[in-house]
Known about the structure:
This protein is mainly α. The chain is built from two helices and no strands. Helix content is about 70%, strand content about 0%.
Amino acid sequence: MNQKRTFGTIxxxxxxxxxxxxxxxxxxxxxxxxxxMNSVVPFIVGLIFFFAGINLVxxxxxxx
Length: 64
């Protein structure tokens, strides 16, 4: 498997985790003790990782 595609997949998964953590912190569920403003940081970092990973996976071409 291509290294760029693997790194893109890892970034996408980390982005999903960050988005979920930010949403759970904003809603106050799941035992995350984050304030409403503090939960914005993992959400934005998760969005950046998610879109960077999706872009890496999408633009990397497969070679047989």
